[in-house]
Amino acid sequence: MIRFENVTACYTKDTGIFNLSFTILKSDMVFLMGPTGAGKSTVLRAIIGDIPINSGKIFIDDQEIPRSNSRKISYFRRKVGTIFQDFKLIKNKTVYENIALPLRITGTPGKIIREKVYEVLKQVDLTGKEKSMPLQLSGGEQQRVSIARALVSEPLVILADEPTGNLDPIVSDDIIDILEKAAQNGTTVLMSTHNYPLIRPRQKRFIELNKGYLIQ
């Protein structure tokens, strides 16, 4: 589902990712490991076309991600749901409006939006919170809204960039449970983290980076 072939994407001569090659299969949940500055966020940003790559190729569902055509990149981004450490919710919009946003952008009819939003609210255990504002929620609830927003368009891939970084261990486990269930339902999940003790009990595959290089 995700394939890197000798990918290099540099900010400077010594900063970025270098000659990365790996494959993640459909419905896999894989952890992207490494300390701060290892290149984890660079990998995720390269997948969504947020940064240019210097060389190599990236594929989603056997289709190469375009390097320059913004219209084609926008098309690829529809296949990917993204979750951030700081949630990136729109503070003056309700939970419902935040989750519905990706569907509104693609012109999905209102009735279908409503059905999908309420279904995904059930999946993340936020039924009854649809009229709440983000700042009325706990950090864990806000992250579940972020996950719901990523899931609502039924993406092929979910990229989670340190989604538990600001959460306590119990809430962090709940968040990983939700992502693991998404993988069981057919979505490929790639989650970056530096917290090995948190993910060790999951017995999942992990890809480890250091200073932009893959550790074999």
Structure notes:
It contains seven helices and ten strands. Helices cover 34% and strands 26% of the residues. By secondary structure, it is an alpha/beta fold. The chain has a six-stranded mixed beta sheet, with helices on both faces. Helix 3 (95-105) packs across helix 4 (110-123), helix 3 (95-105) runs parallel beside helix 5 and helix 5 (139-151) runs parallel beside helix 6.
Give the secondary structure arrangement, pairings included.
Elements: E1 2-12, E2 15-24, E3 29-33, H1 40-47, E4 55-60, E5 63-64, H2 70-77, E6 80-84, H3 95-105, H4 110-123, H5 139-151, E7 157-161, H6 169-184, E8 188-193, H7 196-199, E9 206-210, E10 213-214
